[in-house]
Amino acid sequence: MPEIADIAILAVALAAAGAVAGLLAGIFGIGGGAVLVPVFFQVFGLLGVDEAVRMHLSVGTSLAVIVPTSLRSFASHRARGAVDMDLLRTYLIAVPAGVLIAALVFASISSAGLRIVFAALAVLVGLKLIFGRKDWQIGADLPGVAGRFTAGSVIGFLSTLMGIGGGVLNNTFMTLYGRPIHQAVATSAGVGVLISVPGVLGAIWAGWGAGGLPVLSTGYVNWIAVAIIIPVTLSVAPLGVRIAHRLEKRQLELAFGVFMLVVALRFALSVWVG
């Protein structure tokens, strides 16, 4: 049986992490792993979680947190008729296929390798937010079935390795092909469901029997973190939203872009310096 003291320390640390993640998510208008993974990585490190599994645990736990939030968000957006269901039906096999491939990679990639992947993608996202323009478009409408299937597979693969719900990548894909941002955001909620549900199962499978995990972990998912983070982030996020409404959209884009670059630098240094 795990020590009560160990559980209490973990719970307090994660509650603080959830408050930070919720505040940042509210300010930047983005939930999921883009904020949660770096926060988890820091907290699990402070708690002495083995370096070899810390990044994997951060990604897997983030995916578990995304499951209920993406389900709730998708139901809300679908009720308003904002979701592109045709695109989502194309993703129905493509996205989980990408998640499955990512789970196989996840089981064998090193902690350093996973951090490098997150850092590289974080740099791309950060640069896009800082230097991107609204008039950037590849085409007037989304590509055909083959192109959508390829995009869905890539989104599922990369998002799973980052521990994110796919919103950043799918929003970019849809807006580059002329779709309005509100429709992209609504559809991304459904993408989050297609990523997080098989993704968390893959994280459990990939980490089954791994050593050095904190108490009440199943594979690379820590259930104490999941149980604490969800209500804490939901309660703190409105404060971040109020802060966000005092800022211009461009200021938010620049702030989140800088945040992603700082996270990328942090992970890169953790690999190079140790």
From TrEMBL:
Pfam families documented for this protein: TauE
Please give, as recorded in its UniProt entry, the membrane topology of this protein.
Multi-pass membrane protein
Q: Which UniProt keywords apply?
A: Cell membrane, Membrane, Transmembrane, Transmembrane helix
Locate the transmembrane regions by residue number.
7-37, 87-106, 112-131, 184-208, 220-241, 253-273
Judging by the UniProt lineage, the source's domain of life is Bacteria
The answer to whether keyword Ribonucleoprotein applies is no
Q: Does the keyword ATP-binding apply?
A: no
Q: Give its localization.
A: Cell membrane; Membrane
GO cellular component terms attached to this protein's record: plasma membrane
Protein name (Swiss-Prot/TrEMBL): Probable membrane transporter protein
Organism whose genome encodes this protein:
Roseitalea porphyridii
